[in-house]
Give the backbone structure.
Amino acid sequence: MKYRLLAGGSALVLAAVLSACGSSDDSSDSSGDGRTSIDVWLMRDSVSAQFQKEFVQGFEKAHPGIRARVQIQEWDGIGEKITAALASNDAPDVIESGNTQVAQFAQSGGLLDLSDKVDELNGKDWLKGLAEPGAYEGKQYGIPYYAANRVVIYRTDLFEKAGIDAKTIRTRDQWIAATEKLNKGGDQGIYLPGQTWYALAGFVWDEGGDLATESGGKWKGALDTPEARRGMEFYEKLQALGKGPKDADEADPPQADVMAQGKVAQVISTPGGANVVIEKNPDLKGKLGFFPIPGKTADAPGAVFTGGSDLVIPTASGKQEAALTFIKELTGDAWQKKLAVAMSYVPNRTTLASAVAGDPGAAAMAVGAANGHATPNTPSWAAVEAENPIKDYMTAVLTGGDPAKEAAKASADITRAMNSGS
Amino acid sequence: MSRARSARLRQLPLNAAATLTVLVCLFPVYWMISTAFKPSKDIQSTDPQLFPHTWTLDHFRTAVQADGFGMFWRNSLLVTASSILLALVVALASAYAVARLRWKGRRQFMLMVFIAQMAPWESLIIPIYIISRDTDMLDRLPTLTLVYFMVTLPFSVIVLRGFIGTIPPELEEAAQVDGCTRTGAFRKVALPLLAPGLMATSLFGFITAWNEFAYANFLIIKHQDSRTLPVWLSSFQNTFGTDWGATMAASTLFALPALVVFLLLQRHVTSGFAAGAVKG
Amino acid sequence: MSVIRDRTAPPSPKRRAVPGTSGPPPRRRRSGEPRGLWPYALIAPAVGGMLYLLVYPLLRAVLISLQDFRLRQLITGDAEFVGLRNYRTLLTDERFWEVVRRTFLFMAVNVVLIMVIATLVALMTERLGKVARTVVLSSLVLAWAMPVIAATTVFQWLFHSEFGIVNHLLTGAGFSSFDRYPWFAHGTAAFAILVLLVVWQSVPFAAITIYSALTTVPTELYESARLDGASSARIFRSVTLPVLRPIFLLVFSLEVIWTFKAFVQIWVMTRGGPGDATTILPVYAVQTALAGQRYDLGSAASMVTVVLMSGVLVLYFRQMLRQEDEIR
């Protein structure tokens, strides 16, 4: 009896699946009122829900012929997701992609070449850190969307108590001295996990080194150069001034959660991290400040990795005209300014930098952005990040490994990873 | 008499072992659940606490209020239930044929099933993607259903065949002599005895389909209304890291149905036995 | 014979309800003789499903492993045939062979632990009272049902150098060397934690399956063995084990397959690090595939994995086929 019931149930469920899918498929394409519908993929929390709503309304008002459907994508598995989208017959029309990811997608031929639209989109003023990774073999595929780089988020109250003025910290030596003073009692001078490799990259660039160098079309890991070694030495010195775990990165646990505990004087993060800290611990509202990562000397701010996103159009998109209109609007003056203010981002063009002058986090970021760098601009860099020998190197040195030996090993691993793909 | 005493003596280490098993099994589960109730501030603490000081439902609220919450559940339930039922029906037929009937090619068939068990699903994702794309089956739940059906099928065939093998065929023959058809005999005599096997296979199918992320991520592309629960689980991450409280709350809700399924099937198992079939 | 009568007894109320379907039994039995097509009809759905959903994609995967197949070819669809080049690349990589050795070590350690622990748990569960049994089974299922990501994350936290409760407890118990001990900085420690995690996740399935099989052992066999004065160990050896052997072999082979393919846990927890200390074949395949979306190399690595796995299981296949003969 029970089994017959079960079998009957199975038939019902199967029918339900089939009908559910049949009916929902109808709704998937154009809206029937003569407007063109475009699908836009933006990343989770890259824009606030509020901004998204405002923008879509504004956009559809300005372009009544186009309906924009924004879909929010998750970070987990996004590389595979975009791959699947690019290769499908019916791709979304606009995709937000991390700036360093564009090269590998462009190489595949899945992205529309937008080189002839650069002028129209004010390409001459684009941030280099977004525009360069968005280009591949001289052609522009990614349109700069927004940028963010790391700054120091600090606790104003702890600084005051220790008698330190954050504005006076202009060099690394001053930074170390201040952090030593803060690292007292139950407080950590700085919470710097052992595997925050973007921070290390900044210190290496400051010394004149790099993560990898190219010669004759072949890439080679460069962590074993004297410059890069000096960068790591500084990292080690700084890392010791707090209780950052030596075998984890800043996402595990999220360093904002750690700072929210109230015992950490500084972290290295994009300014948006401050909002997360306050959200987790509202008591810290008004007690967080920002300053650019100090450089070797007071002449220049510390080098930083320019993170951020580009917008791309898949070749498989059926509505490339409308997609371009969307990109033009979102990367245009009016919305860029609003976006930068709403999300504490660096706008995509240098000429718009003044828009965020009033925001302390974004202002600190803009100072650093002047010394922005990128990871090696080649599709094969993705292989390095996939197994990330840099993190292992950092942990090994911090837990007492021989720096020279570990640096040579990490460089060899980077070299191997970068050349295994071709 | 002496048996009773020795039984009681045996009982002590037995209960100790059972307690240990339960503790080891449940500690990580407990950690997940208690984290879901801890305020964010206490989740990562240099002084970890076995019991939360303060309890909060915030994380559950975040988890439940995520966009498309109900839709994710509906889709996952549909896909999981239909792939399990499909696998059970198809597997039961094959298992019966293998365990009870004589035919040419039986060995080859079983070998094929075993090899199917070793299928490298993680690298079949690309070919399956290509095939679905070329047959216009991308972005559809039935595609996922078929994949999960196939992942669980070999296992179901193997297990059910094993279970059918343990039931003496004379039982059915006796029933047939009593006037049942072959199918009738199978249904009334063997099926109740198969309950544990059915339980194991459906649980296996459930957990496989319910947790699967890679295919759900790769085959459901543009049609947002067809996404399944694992996508929901990953929606509490952003560039600043993961909202662990919400993730653990979601994971807790996520694991509940498996327990419900088990408890439901557990009744089937016990009722199968209560009928006196085995202990008789 | 009383056993058989007892067993057929319970459905008797239902039997009365379905006399119509029973038909004239003698004719049915005779018509059962041209069974010829029956079995093939029964397996047809399974075979059809396997051919279209498994064999066909598998052939495509083999084809991909013989082509120059990257993201570009996935999009445009015109892949070039390169023969065995991908396999050559793979098999001449000395790192690959190291990974193979590690995979076997990982598999062996895990499978042995899983089988031993699961058998003990299953035997224990069978001896428990009804309530205790339900509690144990339910906690096994809970552990099994815990999403892999959640389980992996929790284990990662337990062993976190700063915030982990393991270091906290060990330090509290007087082992001061574990104060802020970085577990994931040391290859062996990271390997051990992953083994622990995989065993913890796999035992429930194995234990439940073995337990399910145990319950099908007719109780009379135990009773009579016990009446004969056999010791528990002897009962296990001569009564339980023979009945369990097929399911035991089955669970064993499945665990071999699954630990060989363990991926998510490792990827989430260590990404194969530190160094290569926890890189096993599937992790290696994904790392390789990610190097410029080399689906061809990834496919080749998977094919090699399947071949190696079959190597481990070939004895089992022989055993299984022999069993098939016995049933006949």
Remarks:
- The beta strands of chain C are 67-68, 80-81.
- Residues 65 and 300 of chain C are 5 Å apart (CA to CA).
